[in-house]
Design brief:
The complex is a heterodimer of chains A (218) and B (233).
Chain A lengths: L4 H9 L6 E5 L3 H4 L10 E5 L3 E4 L22 E7 L2 H9 L5 E5 L2 E3 L4 E2 L2 E2 L3 E2 L5 H7 L3 E5 L10 E2 L14 E4 L2 E6 L2 E7 L5 H6 L5 E2 L10
Parallel strand pairs in A: 1-2, 1-5, 5-10, 6-11, 10-12, 14-15
Antiparallel strand pairs in A: 2-3, 3-4, 6-7, 8-9, 12-13, 13-14
Chain B lengths: L10 H4 L8 E4 L9 H10 L4 E4 L11 H5 L3 E6 L6 H8 L4 E4 L2 H13 L3 E4 L13 E4 L2 E7 L3 E12 L4 E2 L8 H6 L1 E12 L18 E4 L15
Parallel strand pairs in B: 1-2, 1-8, 2-3, 3-4, 8-10, 10-11
Antiparallel strand pairs in B: 5-7, 6-7, 8-9
The chains are: A alpha/beta (218), B alpha/beta (233).
Chain lengths: 218, 233
């Protein structure tokens, strides 16, 4: 079975370490904040100028001056700090954020990522994604493995305009966890009940399958 | 106005001198911390052919989106255009020129524009459409592209509090692009929720010194929330 949104978020959260500063992109990455293990301290960076993002507010706590990068109302965690966008991207570009998690339309086995536009169809803009992928060493891309029509999004070469070049080393899809090493995808884990054959079938880029590919554990 | 007193009496006075085809640098992120009344004044004045540098372009009927309605903007320098149908439609039809700029690069372009730095190198955008046609240099084995600073004929920004000398204090994530935007304009216009007398703000708590501010006005704000998300108790 392909992972649900919640399971994807749970698997992302397994990459957190105590004391990590983490930037979570809009969508599934944001959900990972719900699965920070008890007793572990993780501080969430929101690129619009908040380090130490808390949960959504109670109705009476809603403050128009306090939002996250997805423009949702949020709260501040204990020990939070506030700053300008220039300061925010200084910490991102300067490599001070320990882990970045973001979505994508496509990745390829050279570590390239495309996530901000589909020419002629959709223009979202890159927001902070280009800065995040250029600034972070430790990035996880979360995405669906293939389109609804069964076309692989893990490619030999991205077809869409790039968000970043040669910067992605780890991809979590609804079917698998993969690393990118030496110009190849390496299959590390399978979603529970998903076969290696199924993953091979839906991976267009060169894929290395180690002898043992464990199922993800939640 | 006299001496260091930056306070002006009306929004008309605040935006006086803005002409067609000028460049305006604006603060705000989404609808958070936007200079909403200064934008309305630009709409009222009806200036056209404007180039606007701002992270977003508001929504269809709020913020800078108001200036799209009457096609007052000819060029937008922004990082994100999603969730704004008018923006996307005018961009797709070619009526609106858009320079998509990574968010951190945009913030730094404004900062550089205000700080006398004409250009800077960044790894952001190397190997992507953003880097096309830009100078590339290698430092310590990594590729960087040269990005140029942004300066505006005007800048428009929103702060929380100010003293009459234009010393500014921002509030929570409404700070965002505002401090850099202020510094990047030849005429920097700031609207605030409260103006106090000089000496009432603790100098240690001032986020942006009044030297960058030319005109200051107190306004009332709608503060529209784009995505009201709450948890239950």
């Amino acid at each position: 079975m392909a992972l649900t949104r919640e399971q994807l978020a749970q698997r992302v959260a397994q990459e957190f370490h105590d004391g990590y500063y983490v930037n979570l992109g809009i969508g599934i990455p944001t959900l990972a904040a719900n699965y920070i293990p008890d007793g572990m301290q993780v501080m969430l960076q929101s690129e619009n100028g908040l380090l130490g993002m808390g949960p959504f507010p109670l109705d009476e706590e809603v403050d128009a001056d306090l939002i996250n990068a997805g423009k949702q109302t949020v709260t501040m965690a204990t020990g939070a700090s506030l700053f300008s966008s220039a300061e925010s991207f200084a910490m991102i570009r300067g490599g001070h954020v320990d882990l970045t998690v973001l979505g994508a339309f496509e990745v390829d086995c050279q570590g390239n990522i495309a996530s901000y536009m589909i020419p002629g169809k959709l223009i979202k803009g890159m927001g902070g994604a280009m800065d995040l992928v250029a600034g972070a060493d430790n990035i996880i891309v979360t995405m669906t493995h293939a389109s609804k029509h069964g076309e692989s999004k893990l490619l030999p070469e991205c077809t869409l305009p790039l968000t970043g070049k040669g910067c992605i080393k780890r991809v979590l899809t609804d079917l698998a966890l993969l690393d990118i090493e030496d110009g190849k995808f390496v299959l590390r884990e399978r979603a529970p009940g998903v076969s290696v054959e199924e993953i091979v079938e839906l991976t267009a880029g060169e894929l290395v399958v180690p002898d043992s590919v464990p199922e993800m554990v939640f | 106005m006299s001496g260091f007193d930056k306070v002006v009496g009306s929004y008309e006075e605040a935006m006086a001198g803005l002409e067609d085809n000028m460049t305006v640098v604006a603060g705000g992120f989404g609808l958070c911390g936007i200079p909403e009344n200064l934008i309305k004044e630009i709409k009222r004045k009806g200036n056209r052919g404007l180039t606007i540098a701002s992270n977003n372009c508001g929504t269809d009927d709020c913020g800078l989106g108001l200036l799209l309605q009457d096609k007052q903007i000819s060029k937008m320098i922004a990082s994100y255009v999603g969730e704004n149908a008018l923006f996307e439609a005018q961009m797709m039809s070619g009526e609106l020129e858009v320079e998509l700029t990574p968010q951190g690069t945009l913030a730094e372009k404004m900062r550089a524009g205000g700080a006398g730095i004409p250009a800077f190198y960044t790894a952001t955008g190397y190997g992507t459409p953003v880097g096309e046609g830009k100078e590339v240099r290698e430092f310590n084995g990594r590729h960087y592209i040269l990005e140029e600073a942004i300066q505006g004929d005007f800048s428009i920004a929103k702060a929380w509090k100010a003293d009459r000398y234009g010393n500014l204090v921002f509030r929570k994530t409404a700070r965002n692009f505002n401090p850099m935007a202020v510094t990047a304009g030849k005429v920097a216009v700031v609207e605030v929720e409260e103006i106090v007398e000089p000496g009432e703000l603790d100098p240690d708590e001032i986020h942006l010194p009044g030297i960058y501010v030319n005109r200051l006005i107190q306004g009332t704000f709608e503060k529209i929330i784009e995505q009201r998300t709450v948890r239950s108790a």
